[in-house]
Amino acid sequence: MTSTTTLDRAARSATKPAPPFYITRQEERRLRMKAERLSPSLVIDQPSSFDEYTRQLMVPPAVMDLARKASGIRLATWEVQAIRELLDPGTGSEDRSERPRLLREILIAKAAADPSHPPYIRVACTGRGLYDDRARAFGHDTDTDADLVGSPVVLEIWPAQHYSPMHSHGQTTGIIHCLAGQLDVMSYSHLSWDAEKRGLATLTPGRCAWLTKETYAVHKVFCPMDGGPQPTPLLNDTGDFAASFHVYLNEDELTLDAYEPSVLSRDKFHYIHEHTHMESIFETYSDLSWTALRKALVDVAARW
Ligand SMILES: [Fe+2]
User: Fold this and answer.
1) Do the strands 121-124 and 288-289 form a parallel or antiparallel pair, or are they unpaired?
2) CA angle, 125 as apex, 120 and 130 as ends, to 5°?
3) Quick one: pLDDT at residue 94?
4) Could you tell me which Gene3D superfamilies the record lists for this protein (predicted)?
5) Cα separation of 89 and 92, whole Å?
6) Would you place residue 248 in the very low, low, confident or very high pLDDT band (cuts 50, 70, 90)?
7) How far is the CA of 267 from the centre of ligand 1 (A)?
8) In the prediction, which pLDDT does 62 show?
9) Which of 19, 123, 232, 274 could form a cystine bridge with 155, CB 3.0-4.6 A?
């Protein structure tokens, strides 16, 4: 009797749907195969077969233009290593009293502010970040004059096992280009907790997911890398991460006319709260500016 109960529990835990996607292994396999058949293709990559070529041919030209321009971007090895150090929880270090480093400290602050899901870090490629003052507190000299919101280009840092809620990018057209590590992207039919899952794809460096208001606008992003020996539900226990480069253009920025930032629909996006399962609004902001992060990375590398 005891062994049956134990087996049942083990079987349940092996198949019980869990965050971030609440799917079984079997469903995961089915959704990965489903993503391979979606047309237009959910992922933009250098096609290696007629089938991939045909499915990517249906991707809108404005998206292909963004993807092509981003296709060569990667993080340098030293940048990856420096980000890893700044995310490191320090649990393996000799000196446990050492203050968490910049990116780990931002993760801790974000997890405390929003315990609904493990946090990721948004880095504004133009403008200012909410936590830039923390970078200065760590001695990383940063610009204080830039604006806080409205960057059409964002670098996102995804600590291993952390994820976004399901969200919609509304009216924007954009790309999610993987720069480092590995990311899983689940596409949904619409913005609702029970929405149909359209497919699950993995991005590796150079691969790109995309969206328009009509196609693939709703998704959830997860970093499936190793979360370390003692993760909690909100914070991992490793410096491992993935990074992605996001461009979101509003409708009036899609033509070849002059680019004029205006009332930006990318300033807000709608998402489904992980605990309440209700739709909410997220006013987009950046955690850090690229200038602050870049300075922190250089400062880390200078100590090597
Ligand atoms: Fe997104």
Assistant:
1) parallel
2) 55
3) 57
4) Jelly Rolls (2.60.120.10)
5) 8
6) confident
7) 13
8) 93
9) 123
